[in-house]
């Protein structure tokens, strides 16, 4: 059977195990010899016990576990050709020419580069007598299929990444707990949630927790928010998953005066608007306030809006009893939601199918979710778009960032 290996790389997320399990079992079902590679690219470079044949039962009882049982790592060695040469040698000597990579855009970029170099890596290995002529010929094509594991939902080309839904569950559980105590003491709570350059978690959290305010790196604030809201909602209808849409729906649902996100940061008068909003809420009888801050929230000048800063604003101006909760890695842990388990299963099966159907000309693909269908998209197109979003954010071109994030 064909040699196929699966590994997880970059940051972990819930649901990765479901994907690993699915790849292993689908691979075995289709007659492949399937391997785990432990600790991401590091295990591929180091070889030895890190690359281990998997069987049907080696992926039993893992679907409900968070994180990744085969480990994940950042790997400097793989960034250099020398490291990739070792990795190629470790794969060829085991007859592995099909790779399923579960990671973020960095991991997928590395896989793409590896494939581009494959031929020349094998030539060099042959020259140095590290592989035989037979092996050079037999394993001359490397096939790649990727999947995105990330709680941030920050990858272009997919409606959801593996782990986002579970993270949201974790956050909502925490907020529900906080709300009950905040109510008792009439407190204001500021919750920082993850999502470095992507306000998805913050926005969806705000939407599902009735937050009063949300600061995220990419949305429309300003004075005439009502007009803008209607206008943007119309625009957004064409682009149902764009962050604008979510931000605006969140604003509507939570009756926020403003939305603060990283791709369209707040104007300078955000302090007044925030205070006015909180005061109004208390006057109308609400016993608590919840403010969601994405870890990447910034203002128009690009200055970070941190939970600490928001707290200072609230305390200095309103003298409200204000506390901060930074959820941190709790969001990435715990058992995966049903959605993430099934997403991992479906994507894993599709990734193996893609590899088995690949011809020498087939470009690397990434399996994504598009309107509840697991589909294959050209890997590098999606990576390029994802990187273009980061660039647009760095250039303070938030409209472009949001546009690029939407479905193509
Ligand atoms: P993520 O996959 O979550 O974006 P990283 O960007 O840290 O996380 O990438 C994970 C690993 O993928 C890196 O530690 C490195 O081993 C590999 N990698 C990332 N970018 C490249 C690249 N341009 N070339 C080769 N390997 C890369």
TrEMBL record:
<feature type="binding site">
    <location>
        <begin position="74"/>
        <end position="75"/>
    </location>
    <ligand>
        <name>ATP</name>
    </ligand>
</feature>
<feature type="binding site">
    <location>
        <position position="323"/>
    </location>
    <ligand>
        <name>substrate</name>
    </ligand>
</feature>
<feature type="binding site">
    <location>
        <position position="11"/>
    </location>
    <ligand>
        <name>ATP</name>
    </ligand>
</feature>
<feature type="binding site" description="in other chain">
    <location>
        <position position="295"/>
    </location>
    <ligand>
        <name>substrate</name>
    </ligand>
</feature>
<comment type="subunit">
    <text>Homotetramer.</text>
</comment>
<feature type="domain" description="Phosphofructokinase">
    <location>
        <begin position="4"/>
        <end position="237"/>
    </location>
</feature>
<comment type="similarity">
    <text>Belongs to the phosphofructokinase type A (PFKA) family. ATP-dependent PFK group I subfamily. Eukaryotic two domain clade 'E' sub-subfamily.</text>
</comment>
<feature type="binding site">
    <location>
        <position position="187"/>
    </location>
    <ligand>
        <name>substrate</name>
    </ligand>
</feature>
<feature type="binding site" description="in other chain">
    <location>
        <begin position="329"/>
        <end position="332"/>
    </location>
    <ligand>
        <name>substrate</name>
    </ligand>
</feature>
<feature type="binding site" description="in other chain">
    <location>
        <begin position="194"/>
        <end position="196"/>
    </location>
    <ligand>
        <name>substrate</name>
    </ligand>
</feature>
<feature type="active site" description="Proton acceptor">
    <location>
        <position position="152"/>
    </location>
</feature>
<feature type="binding site">
    <location>
        <position position="105"/>
    </location>
    <ligand>
        <name>Mg(2+)</name>
    </ligand>
</feature>
<protein>
    <recommendedName>
        <fullName>ATP-dependent 6-phosphofructokinase</fullName>
    </recommendedName>
</protein>
<feature type="domain" description="Phosphofructokinase">
    <location>
        <begin position="245"/>
        <end position="354"/>
    </location>
</feature>
<comment type="function">
    <text>Catalyzes the phosphorylation of D-fructose 6-phosphate to fructose 1,6-bisphosphate by ATP, the first committing step of glycolysis.</text>
</comment>
<comment type="similarity">
    <text>Belongs to the phosphofructokinase type A (PFKA) family. ATP-dependent PFK group I subfamily. Eukaryotic two domain clade "E" sub-subfamily.</text>
</comment>
<feature type="region of interest" description="N-terminal catalytic PFK domain 1">
    <location>
        <begin position="1"/>
        <end position="408"/>
    </location>
</feature>
<feature type="binding site">
    <location>
        <begin position="104"/>
        <end position="107"/>
    </location>
    <ligand>
        <name>ATP</name>
    </ligand>
</feature>
<feature type="binding site" description="in other chain">
    <location>
        <begin position="150"/>
        <end position="152"/>
    </location>
    <ligand>
        <name>substrate</name>
    </ligand>
</feature>
């Amino acid at each position: 059977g064909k040699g196929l290996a699966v590994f997880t790389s970059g940051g972990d997320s819930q649901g990765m195990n479901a994907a690993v399990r699915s790849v292993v079992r689908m691979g075995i079902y289709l007659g492949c010899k399937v391997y785990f590679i432990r600790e991401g690219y590091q295990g591929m470079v180091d070889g030895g016990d890190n690359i281990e044949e998997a069987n049907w039962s080696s992926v039993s009882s893992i679907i409900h576990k968070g994180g990744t049982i085969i480990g994940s790592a950042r790997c400097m060695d793989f960034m250099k050709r020398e490291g990739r040469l070792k990795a190629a040698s470790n794969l060829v000597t085991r007859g592995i020419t099909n790779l399923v990579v579960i990671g973020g855009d960095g991991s997928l970029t590395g896989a793409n580069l590896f494939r581009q170099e494959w031929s020349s890596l094998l030539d060099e290995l042959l020259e140095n007598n590290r592989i035989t002529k037979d092996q050079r010929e037999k394993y001359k094509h490397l096939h790649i299929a990727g999947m995105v594991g990330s709680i941030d939902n920050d990858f272009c080309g997919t409606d959801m990444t593996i782990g986002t839904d579970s993270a949201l569950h974790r956050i909502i559980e925490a907020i529900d707990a906080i709300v009950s105590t905040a109510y008792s003491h009439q407190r204001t709570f500021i919750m920082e949630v993850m999502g470095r350059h992507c306000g998805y978690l913050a926005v969806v959290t705000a939407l599902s927790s009735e937050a009063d305010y949300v600061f995220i790196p990419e949305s429309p604030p300003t004075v005439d928010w009502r007009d803008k809201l209607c206008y943007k909602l119309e625009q957004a209808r064409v682009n149902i998953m764009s962050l604008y849409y979510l931000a605006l729906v969140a604003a509507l649902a939570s009756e926020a005066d403003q939305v603060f996100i990283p791709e369209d940061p707040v104007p300078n008068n955000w302090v007044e608007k925030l205070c006015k909003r909180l005061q109004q809420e208390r006057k109308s009888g609400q016993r608590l306030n919840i403010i969601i801050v994405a870890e990447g929230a910034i203002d128009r000048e690009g200055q970070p809006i941190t939970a600490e800063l928001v707290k200072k604003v609230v305390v200095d101006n309103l003298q409200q009893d204000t506390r901060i909760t930074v959820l941190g890695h709790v969001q990435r842990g715990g058992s995966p939601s049903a959605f993430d388990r099934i997403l991992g299963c479906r994507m894993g099966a599709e990734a193996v199918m893609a590899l088995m159907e690949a011809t020498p000309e087939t470009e690397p693909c990434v399996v994504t979710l598009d309107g509840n269908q697991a589909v294959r998209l050209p890997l590098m197109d999606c990576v390029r778009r994802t990187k273009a979003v980061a660039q647009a954010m760095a250039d303070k071109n938030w409209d472009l960032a949001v546009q690029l994030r939407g479905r193509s």
